[in-house]
Amino acid sequence: MIKVGDELPAVTLSEYAEVEGDGCSLGPNPVDVRQAAAGKAIAVFAVPGAFTPTCSARHVPSYLQHHDALKAVGVDEIWCLSVNDAFVMGAWARDQKTAGRIRMLADGDAAFAKAVGLTLDLVGKGLGLRSTRYSMLVRNGRVAALNVEGPGKFEVSDGATLLAQAKG
User: Fold this and answer.
1) Is the Cβ–Cβ distance between 131 and 148 less than 8 Å?
2) 24 assigned to active site
3) 128 φ, ψ (degrees, to nearest 5)
4) Which has the closest alpha carbon to 27: 12, 16, 43?
5) How many domains would you assign to the chain?
6) Is residue 89 a contact partner of residue 16, using CB atoms and an 8 Å limit?
7) CA pair distance 131, 107, nearest whole angstrom
8) What is the CATH number of the domain that holds 154?
């Protein structure tokens, strides 16, 4: 499992773009994790699945609620990762109204979750291999803080916890 001080893995995630922008086209666009994290402070949180109850009702809203405070203490970006495809993450971004505040990044084949050693096997529940619920503060591509939830828990990976760590 990834730990404080480790570098983020060299994997590519995917992000759905609603509008064409600098270097990105409409639809899914690749996001090279190491390149995207270079020189930045990033609040990363991962969820077992888009549109799932705790993820939609509590996890994403906790980061939306603390967005301005995280920015005020030097966090450049907030990333939400889930083992879903970019189209699902784009639809969830619209549903949660995250545009301009949280980057909703798809880890479609669980490459990131596997590389950091934080997978959750939900095959028996019909959901396949997913990501464990966690958060991490990343500074210049290296993990500065890591909060991994226990099974079925939502206690340490919320926006308030990561904000307190970013302040310290």
Assistant:
1) no
2) no
3) 75, -160
4) 16
5) 1
6) yes
7) 9
8) 3.40.30.10
**Cα 47 to Cα 18: distance, rounded to the nearest angstrom:** 22
Q: Specify which residues 139 forms β-bridges with.
A: 41, 142
> Which residue among 46, 55, 93, 148 is the active-site one?
55
What's the rounded Cα separation, in Å, for the pair 108 and 83?
5
Residue 107, in any domain of the structure: yes
d(CA 112, CA 82): 9
Residue type, 60: V
**pTM, to two decimals:** 0.93
Decide if 50 contacts 85 (C-beta within 8 A). no
Confidence bin at 19 (pLDDT 50/70/90): low
Residue 162: closest CA among 134, 120, 133? 134
pLDDT > 60? residue 143: yes
Residue 29: partners with Cβ closer than 8 Å, 6 or more residues away: 14, 15, 16, 17, 86
